[in-house]
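Bumping my old thread because nobody answered last time. Still need a sequence for this structure:
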């Protein structure tokens, strides 16, 4: 498929209503209805566990793959003719996953199960880890999905020497006390992978008292921000990604030719 020349992204830095899916569905609907009036989007992005928030409740609140959250995602994708990307917990074959769903307007979905569950919380004991790293193709753009803690693991998110993905997509509940790490790592992942990075983080305070600064961002392949979020504020960020600018940069600075592979890291001259 020919890559769409301008790819528009809308990122909802959401103040998640604690353990209340219906209230969060309503909030998402209203936020995009306001933010996208007169504008189009190719990708709508929510934070991690956007239906309930991140905490000890995640396993017991998990849905089936095609439950209410999936139905809502399809409805939003159809309404805006856009891919709807969001994480919520799913129970499947006796296990629970923190699953990032990338849902197209026709109802088709590519999903990613969080590969690094956060061991400094109860997530690692509640939820199973994903083992695959799928690519999502949408309007000619290749997207690599990831969730929150995955951001700290560059080998897991590493682009190939062939530059298999154009956008690294992160959905998160990353606490405000560590927001400098979040913003720094988003830029690092963009620079080292010669890709755009879309990072959607929640804001507000959750039901356990943890505060989130937001700091959602769309970063270009040079590590430069394309958005200016307000800290601790619920908002929709909007950015346009240029296929031409990405190609020109990659052609002029083909750093990927010298990407290390696991074998080359240990090769002795």
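Sorry it took so long. Here it is:
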């Amino acid at each position: 498929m020919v890559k769409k020349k301008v790819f528009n992204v809308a990122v909802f830095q959401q103040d998640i209503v604690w353990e209340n899916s219906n209230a969060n569905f309503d909030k998402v609907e209203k936020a995009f209805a306001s933010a996208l009036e007169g504008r189009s989007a190719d990708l709508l992005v929510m934070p991690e566990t956007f239906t309930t928030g991140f905490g000890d409740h995640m396993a017991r609140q998990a849905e089936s793959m095609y439950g209410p959250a999936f139905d809502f995602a399809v409805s939003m994708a159809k309404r805006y003719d856009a891919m709807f990307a969001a994480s919520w917990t799913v129970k499947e074959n006796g296990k629970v996953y923190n699953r990032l769903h990338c849902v197209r307007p026709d109802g088709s979905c590519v999903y990613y199960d969080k590969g690094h569950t956060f061991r400094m919380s109860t997530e690692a004991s509640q939820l199973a880890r994903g083992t695959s790293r799928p690519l999502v193709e949408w309007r000619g753009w290749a997207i690599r999905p990831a969730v929150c803690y995955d951001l700290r693991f560059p080998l897991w998110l590493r682009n190939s020497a062939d530059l298999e993905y154009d956008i690294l997509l992160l959905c998160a509940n990353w606490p405000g006390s560590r927001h400098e790490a979040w913003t720094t790592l988003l830029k690092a992942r963009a620079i080292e992978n010669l890709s755009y990075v879309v990072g959607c983080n929640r804001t507000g305070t959750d039901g356990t008292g943890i505060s989130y600064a937001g700091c959602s961002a769309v970063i270009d392949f040079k590590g430069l921000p394309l958005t200016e979020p307000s800290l601790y504020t619920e908002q929709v960020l909007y950015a346009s990604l240029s296929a031409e600018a990405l190609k020109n940069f990659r052609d002029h600075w083909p750093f990927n030719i010298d990407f290390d592979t696991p074998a080359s890291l240990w090769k002795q001259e």
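The longest strand covers residues 83-92. Let me know if any region looks off to you.
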